[in-house]
Amino acid sequence: MAKNLMIQGTMSGVGKSILTAGILRVLKQDGYKVAPFKSQNMALNSYVTKEGREIGRAQALQAQACGLDPSSDMNPILIKPMGDTTSQIIVNGLPLGNMKARDYFKNKKSLIPDIQAAYDRLSRDADIIVIEGAGSPVEINLRDNDIVNMGLAQILDAPVLLAGDIDPGGVFAQLLGTVSLMSPEERNRVKGLIINKFRGDVTLLEPGLSMFKKYCDIPFAGVVPYTKLSLDEEDSVSQRLTVNNKFKNKNLVINTYSRVINKCITDRDDNTRNLIIAVIRLPYISNYTDFTIFENIDGVDLYYIDDQDSLDKADLVIIPGTKNTIEDLKWLRKKGLSDKIQELSCKEVPIIGICGGFQMLGKSIADTSGVEGGGVVKGLGLLPIETEFTSYKNLRQVSAITPKLSGFYEPVSDTPISGYEIHMGSSILDDSTDHEDCVITRKNVLGTYIHGIFDTPSFTQKLIKLLYEKNGIDRDIPVVEELSVTQDRELDRLADVLRQSLDLELVYRVIGL
Ligand SMILES: NC(=O)CC[C@H](N)C(=O)O
Questions:
Q1: Is the ipTM of this complex over 0.90?
Q2: 288 alpha carbon to ligand 1 midpoint, in Å?
Q3: pTM of this prediction?
């Protein structure tokens, strides 16, 4: 039976996923067989395993930290919010159905055997499993039915490290408040405290660490510095996107990337300027990890935008995936963005739709059986496809070669691509019987169901070259690195940071090594 360790946090966004990934990488470097586990994840950034099962993207990254292929055992329950109170519930990587929050809360204990079985399968091949909690372990109204924080720690008999986030302030109160609300048995499980995202001079913090002993006898396991990493995170807490109060449910908060688009536009005539890629930040955006690669490419600026003026400035407009295509299409219309996209398309601005965004670019979308809330709507009419929602979920990894393309995208014909599909809707081309192509283009518009398509360096490099040429940008074509290579490097960097900042002896002791 594997040993284990659980990382809990004082709240969402303290960095649990990344700390878990980093600790896993340290343990792997030290020669242990390790695996990640998160019983229940609420996220719209998901990943499809080789077996065609869907899990949270953060667990896929943690699997990479361990040198393992992602498996649905690492995240047996995934909750995908698709409305104010409704979510799609994924169990063992496959959809169980849509549920209201209240019903899920009532029934979730029945999923304990699935959680236990997944964990047991993982632990057969691992020396150590690092378990990630969710949100805060002391949401006292949720304590009774807990299957993801202390309830899980108890089931799996896991020691806990509790992390707080010093960046917004109040870290001592976060830690003490959390520990104080725990029962004595729960508190006993907490073997160390971590202060995460510390900026500045640690000697200024040290007196506080000693003073804290007066209030709490749990030792500090480390103060981890604020570190910028290019690694996938859970969408509900992303710092790539900042808060917009209009969407109250935190899991649906989709916001503007902190870079201001207007700034770099002043120099549009400068032929050495960066390329501007604008991703529409749909309220139910899913898999925006599709675009992480652009953050690492010199010469490309990536923006998540929701206003017409910003769109005017883009060299490439991308409509991303969405958990609720029809609702997001209505939103697009309400914001005037659909008209703007159609106008830009007439001006031959390149447009790409991924998955839900691809569906929107078509002629019509029908959800007659209410898979995503129901209805039949007209699409933007820029691609000749018709989409119909069914209860079958397409989940698969894809490796393909782009077909012979015409129009703007012709130079990306016959290019190998890979990625994964996650969709309930299926689309047919209405002007031919052939609907098997991995990408469909008409003039300046491209649509595909494949998430992760930009992670294929040759495809993205060709695309950037095309966009440079179209916009008269005279720059060297950037080197596009395989995302897994970037992520491996970042994981090693993270491990170095943790080796410097965590008391690893304490961590090993807590694990029982
Ligand atoms: N990943 C996606 O963008 C999904 C698109 C759409 N909601 C579907 O399920 O078909």
A1: yes
A2: 13
A3: 0.91
